[in-house]
Amino acid sequence: MGYSYILPVTHIKGKTIELTTLLDTMKILVATEKPFAKVAVDGIRSVVEAAGFELALLEKYTEKKQLLDAVSDADALIIRSDKVDAEVLDAARQLKIVVRAGAGYDNIDLDAATRHNVVAMNTPGQNSNAVAELALGLMVYAVRNFYNGASGTELKGKTLGIHAFGNVGRNVARIAQGFGMKVIAFDAYCPDSAMLDANVEPVHSAEELYEKANIVSLHIPATEETKKSINRHLISLMPKGAILVNTARKEVINEDDLLQLMAERTDLKYLTDIMPAAHEQFVDKFADRYFSTPKKMGAQTAEANINAGIAAAKQIVDFFKTGNTRFRVN
Ligand code: 3PG
Q1: Neighbours of 193 (CB within 10 A)
Q2: What's the burial of 178, exposed, middle or buried (CB within 10 Å: 0-12/13-18/19+)?
Q3: pTM exceeds 0.85, yes or no
Q4: CA angle, 12 as apex, 52 and 55 as ends, to 5°?
Q5: How do residues 252-311 score in pLDDT, each as one tens digit?
Q6: Ligand 1 test: best mutation among 78, 126, 131, 217, most atoms within 8 Å of CB?
Q7: Least enclosed by CB within 10 Å: which of 20, 85, 185, 248?
């Protein structure tokens, strides 16, 4: 969809501003509670400054008020999992575009962004290898009994079920095949041909995936449809010794169901990169079968930061200079 960057400026300031004036004064704010690697910030700065724009940084902020203050004069915003809700958009009086440097954009209130005439984008695929590598790392950690010294098992020969075959799921499949795993996948929105091209066996229901897989790796987004959808019904279908790996979102898990099921089935392991709301309960009850990273680490590599951060900066520059809205999500 085409988009004119003149319109929101006119709307916000109540008058038409010359494009050259507009471009001279553009302020791009990078607001990251969990910062990018320095090398990525340097890259973002180069892109922004080469376009003649100004870069502002708000890193490791601890209170929303800091974000509300920082966005007040920003024309564009680059974020990660940082929450951009109606209050942030109200405070961001000059904002024309927000880019989530990453895949999932459930942290942006898209309706509020649209109401505020703010374009929202993501940078699909840019951090997916990093997340996929972490998913495989969690699998190795699980089959080797959390490196506790006891004899474990191998990934080779096991069946991996990939739940959603998007950018991360495809990278997980590629790496898992290197381990000698059999890879199957379920994705209601992906044609079988995309899976078959990657030597992945398509299955046609979530139930079939969970029944057949020794390990399920979650790559579904958090939407109204998927929230709490990974529930007792699905997980209980998994075979003995099953492992559930979550590098997607905590909201997709029905935590009450999982807590109950793990109490009933002492063979079940859960490893996650997104700390559950009930983390303490999981630790207390299942210390030897449950693991969570302390902070979401999947995309936390220099490479992923560079790829996603610089893609976000380039998308913003392109948006202002040419009106390109290719990765718009609202
Ligand atoms: C994503 O949606 O791109 C990943 O979950 C990574 O999120 P992060 O940028 O907050 O690490």
Answers
A1: 9
A2: exposed
A3: yes
A4: 25
A5: 999 999 999 999 999 999 999 999 999 999 999 999 999 999 999 999 999 999 999 999
A6: 131
A7: 20
